[in-house]
Specification:
The complex is a heterodimer of chains A (296) and B (296).
Chain A lengths: L1 H35 L1 H5 L2 H4 L4 E2 L4 E2 L2 H32 L2 H16 L2 H20 L7 H25 L3 H9 L4 H12 L1 H17 L2 H6 L20 H9 L7 H39 L1
Helix pairs in contact in A: 1-13, 4-7, 4-10, 5-7, 6-7, 7-10, 8-9, 10-13, 12-13
Chain B lengths: L1 H17 L18 E6 L1 H17 L4 E5 L3 H9 L5 E4 L5 H9 L4 E15 L7 E3 H9 L16 E5 L4 H11 L15 E3 L2 H10 L3 E6 L8 E2 L1 E3 L11 H5 L6 E9 L4 H10 L2 H9 L9
Parallel strand pairs in B: 1-2, 1-3, 5-10, 6-7, 6-8
Antiparallel strand pairs in B: 3-11, 4-8, 4-9, 4-11
Helix pairs in contact in B: 3-4
Classes of the chains: A mainly alpha (296), B alpha/beta (296).
Chain lengths: 296, 296
């Protein structure tokens, strides 16, 4: 009787925990919709698509903020994906056992450094360095934000990708090497494709961290709401969606237009992350289906 | 085991449903005669002063606890409107819109001038420019002047620094410097103005970067930056900000600092505000680099 009860309770507990993730996402989405959608009634589409963000006087152009977030995130991806994947491959495939046992925990510790600390390093060291090195008017630029975000995303990418590479069966590598492939060919043509779904997950999680990161970005990107249209925008200040929400949410009175617009930005951010995640899982799924077809 | 499972189940239920209204704790009742704690929030310009006052007052009246937090004038007034604080600190006057919101929430903000402040315009120590007129500063910030050689400096691009839009300093500077006090003037900050979330950010960027112009409350200016002498027009006298030049009305960028209560203050809050107007409390104002109001 007692055991049955325990079983029953635990069973439900696990079920509830499992479903709660879905419920929470649903509730968050509902809340964002409820607080954000009134924007469309209060602010004209023309205003929302204008290039000026100056909320205290009713200018709610979202394009500079969306552009700023995308620019910084793309920059971060360009830094973090090659570095992260190479590190993961090195740790999983190349490094001797002792190096691996030192490197992996070190990378995980790097992942635990609070982003505000990285932000401070960015303000005090990286920004002045970039300003002198590139001879630009100020070091608080999209590039600075990208480098910091890259540093924040790398540990996530390394940890997840290394696990994925590690779970590729030993026999794959042995077979490849037995067929006369070099180690590099084995890594590039066999191990990486076999771990592809895990590697894509790693990249997406890394990018997800980058696009959602707030504090470090707010400290080093200068927060000027300029629409980034040229390549040189990379070397000038930008304002991201997350920094805007963080900097302005404390100020707004509840249910004012500005408040609704900030939630609308949250909604846009939510939809962008959702899009990235769906794209990633479809890519991973398609790959799996293909390999299953080949194997069967 | 069964009990533990049940307990966890109940806790989970509580988490799921119990947090519904959890964030909307009722405001401490300031009007009750037994109130021993005062919640004070708002302007980052005022926060150090408010803290110093709170500490001193607590020393004199150990029964009264005053908690002080910053966040910006808008944040403080929003909190006053939402009823979560007893006193809101503001470095700008409450806007008609905010008064309307307060009245819609059943409140009635009452204003007290508690000190005066001057905004100092600052540049890097290596910048040869020593003085500017209000018109020149306005042209620099609105983007009409983009190089230091147009105002007698080196041939360097100008990088504009500003506080975030939720800072009272930002609004004051916009209205009284960029728009030169003319309510019909719709000049904006140039879009590429860097909006930094803290005084510390402005000081550190000004210290490191010879291209920047920044502004901040006189109380926050450190010896690491150079203060510009300002004239109201080109025929006028260039004046450096100081307690004397602010009180005599010579320095053109000065303002009153406010505390707001919801309705006429009673009990402990009234005693506290009365004490702030005394010479003792105003002596602290001078120590922190602000300008005291005339005391009776």
């Amino acid at each position: 009787m007692r055991n049955k009860w325990t079983e029953f309770a635990l069973n439900w507990l696990i079920k509830i925990s499992g479903y709660s993730a879905i419920i929470f996402v649903g509730l968050i989405f509902f809340f964002l919709l409820r607080e954000g959608l009134p924007t469309l009634g209060e602010v004209s589409i023309r205003n929302l698509l204008s290039p000026r963000w100056y909320p205290i006087e009713g200018y709610f152009g979202l394009l500079p903020l969306i552009g700023g977030s995308l620019l910084v995130t793309i920059g971060a991806a360009l830094f973090s994906i090659p570095i992260g994947l190479c590190t993961a491959v090195f740790i999983a495939e190349v490094a001797p056992r002792w190096a691996r046992e030192v490197l992996k925990p070190l990378v995980e510790i790097l992942g635990g450094v609070p982003s505000v600390v990285l932000g401070f390093l960015g303000i005090l060291i990286l920004a002045p360095f970039l300003r002198r090195f590139l001879d630009i008017p100020t070091g608080l630029t999209a590039l600075t934000g990208s480098i910091l975000l890259g540093a924040i995303a790398v540990p996530t990418i390394v940890t997840v990708a290394e696990d994925a590479l590690d779970s590729v069966p030993r026999s794959y590598r042995d077979a490849s090497l037995a067929l006369g492939a070099t180690e590099w060919q084995t890594i590039w043509r066999v191990t990486l494709p076999a771990a592809r779904s895990g590697v894509i997950t790693a990249i997406m999680l890394g990018i997800g961290r980058a696009i959602g990161e707030t504090m470090a970005v707010m400290m080093v990107t200068g927060n000027a709401p300029v629409l980034p249209v040229k390549l040189s925008s990379f070397f000038s200040p930008v304002r991201t969606m997350t920094a805007t929400i963080a900097a302005e949410m404390g100020e707004v009175a509840k249910n004012s237009t500005h408040y609704h617009v900030l939630f609308f930005i949250g909604l846009v951010l939510f939809i962008i992350s959702l899009g990235i995640n769906i794209a990633a899982s479809t890519a991973a799924l398609r790959q799996r289906q293909r390999s299953e077809r080949i194997l069967s | 085991m069964k009990k533990v499972g049940y307990l966890i189940f109940m806790i989970l239920l509580f988490i799921l449903f119990g947090c519904n209204r959890g964030s909307e704790t009722p405001a401490p009742d300031a009007s009750s005669p037994n109130a021993k704690s005062i919640v004070n929030k708002g302007s980052d310009t005022l926060v150090n002063l408010a803290l110093a006052w709170a500490e001193k007052y607590h020393e004199l009246n150990p029964a009264i606890e005053i908690s002080v937090t910053g966040g910006g004038s808008g944040t403080g007034i929003a909190a006053l409107i939402n009823g979560t604080v007893d006193i809101a600190n503001a470095s700008r006057q409450i806007t008609p819109g905010e008064i309307d919101q307060a009245k819609a929430n059943g409140g009635d903000p009452v204003e007290f001038v508690v000190a005066k402040d001057a905004i100092a315009v600052i540049v890097n120590k290596s910048n040869p420019v020593n003085q500017l007129t209000l018109q020149q500063i306005s042209d620099i910030y609105s983007g009409k002047i983009n190089n230091w050689d147009q105002v007698g400096g080196d041939a360097r691009p100008i990088v504009r620094l500003s506080r975030e839009t939720n800072s009272g300093t930002h609004v004051f500077f916009l209205e009284n410097v960029i728009r030169l006090g003319d309510p019909n003037n719709k000049t904006f900050f140039s879009a590429d103005t860097l909006l930094l979330p803290s005084s510390e950010g402005i000081t550190s960027e000004t210290r490191d970067n010879p291209n920047v112009i920044g502004y901040d409350g006189l109380g926050y200016v450190t010896p690491e930056v150079k203060v510009i002498a300002v004239a109201s027009d080109s025929s006028g006298m260039y004046v450096l900000p100081s307690a004397d030049s602010v009180n005599s009305g010579q320095y053109p960028i000065a303002r009153d600092l406010y505390m707001y209560t919801n309705g006429l203050p009673k009990g402990a809050v009234a005693d506290y505000l009365n004490w702030i107007m005394t010479a003792d409390a105003q002596a602290i104002v001078t120590q922190l680099g602000f300008v005291p109001i005339a005391t009776q």
